[in-house]
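Suppose you are handed a protein chain with no further information: no name, no annotation, nothing but its sequence. What can you learn? This example shows the usual starting point.
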Amino acid sequence: MKNYDIVIIGGGPAGLAAAVAAFDAGQKNVLILERDSCLGGILNQCIHNGFGLHTFKEELTGPEYATRFIEQVTERKIEYKLNTMVMDLSPEKVITAMNREDGLFEIQAKAIILTMGCRERSRGALNIPGFRPAGIYSAGTAQRLVNIEGYMPGRQVVILGSGDIGLIMARRMTLEGAKVKVVAEIMPYSGGLKRNIVQCLDDFGIPLKLAHTVVDIEGKERITGCTIAAVDEHMKPIPGTEEHYDCDTLLLSVGLIPENELSRGMGVALNRVTNGPTVNESLETSIPGVFAAGNVLHVHDLVDFVSEEAEAAGRNAAAYVAAGGEETELNEIPVEIEGGPRYTVPATIDPKRAGDKLTVRFRVGGVMKKKSVNVYLDDERVVHRKRPVMAPGEMEEVLLTRAMFDKHPDLKSIKIKVEEE
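A reasonable first move is to predict its three-dimensional structure. Written in structure tokens, the prediction is:
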């Protein structure tokens, strides 16, 4: 059995950033395990621009952004294994994995960083009536077919769901010559970034129908059409609002699910809202020495924030290993939420271990206007941010500093409230 100080599960943007940060923090014995044939993860098929504005202060495509981090990994000679499937993680941090060269093998790690990303919700989770013909794809699958494999999934397209991948594929399919008839979204608001609605739908004259869903799929061998209808406040289709569209392709962009089967098997406590691990201020899970970052933790809107979060996880994992895996007595204070946030990452904070700066991220449960985000340490408000508009599709964040915590040596409660402005 080989021994490594830090093993990172997943070689996407989060895994790469975590590896570089851990290496730069002094832990040179680092290994990345990646199941694909190359590093970079989902960014390799995201050939559109819009990445890197925060991290590199310039606009890059997905492959360009990934390449920047792959080069950093290569320069540091950080070890990685490709085409390697991790089969099991034990609470003792023993990793069971397999690939063609090594067969089935085990690795003992002092710390593990979970960066497995997320997967798309499938048609099976939606209960749409109708046959199961060819021509129904998740938006990410269609993106890979077009951008990497060089295939066109179809020519007459309907898209269900307004997540960012679906919006981007509406534009991509249009640029490749397809006709995107409509984007239907069951919620009364879009699930994607405002800029993607403007750049991918409005600029190409593609209609977005909110509070609509697909109620029927037609065609036996191949999809020939689908029917959408408006829904009421209980998400039930409203009779008489049906609209039929002839199409040969239906793309599903109906949400992302953090990839946590390995985490669950390991015994990591998961958050019921995010479906990702519950973590503290160090991005450490319920198992000491096991950290999580990126979309496996909670679904992000910008990859720059994935990298920023993963770098923090890498530094904290390196500090854990440097301390010999021993943790001082913890004083974890749960982060309470009120007025709109659905969850926070981290879920608990130990003020003594929070560092000089700590970013707390969250999403709200609905569209909110003319509000303010406030953070209270005990009863004192330490953060006040006016927010003209907040939406579930865009992540919110607040910054807590060492100076704030130092003023409250006997801190008992941390609250994040969304209040009327």
